[in-house]
Recover the amino acids of this structure.
């Protein structure tokens, strides 16, 4: 049940990023962000903790800014995987679009999770 809550929260956050960031475009209508949110939720549960542990010294040196780069790279990875595996997803034009999209997804996810209790 926790995974479904995280998937729903990530889906809403991904919709917000698609609508707010000029360099992120949905491919496949609303199914694109849904598929990308599924892949992103799976990546956040499996790969992200390992990358954060490996990048901890660099994150300490940059006062946590390295986590934003990790989030942007994972968003790029989830976009690519959703296209490759599922055939739909979101298209990200540049790294800076992914960087801004990752910030928006993180902020919206945190706010929705705090309000609803989903995704935690």
């Amino acid at each position: 049940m926790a995974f479904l809550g995280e998937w729903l929260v990530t889906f809403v956050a991904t919709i917000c990023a698609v609508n707010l960031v000029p360099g992120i475009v949905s491919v496949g209508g609303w199914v694109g962000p849904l598929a990308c949110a599924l892949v992103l939720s799976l990546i956040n549960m499996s790969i992200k903790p390992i990358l954060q542990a490996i990048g901890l010294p660099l994150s300490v040196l940059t006062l946590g800014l390295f986590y934003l780069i990790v989030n942007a790279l994972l968003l790029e990875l989830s976009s690519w995987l959703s296209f490759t595996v599922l055939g739909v997803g979101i298209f990200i034009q540049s790294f800076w679009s992914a960087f801004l999209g990752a910030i928006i997804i993180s902020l919206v996810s945190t706010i929705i999770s705090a309000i609803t209790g989903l995704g935690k």
Q: What stands out?
A: The chain has six helices and two strands. The mean pLDDT is 93.
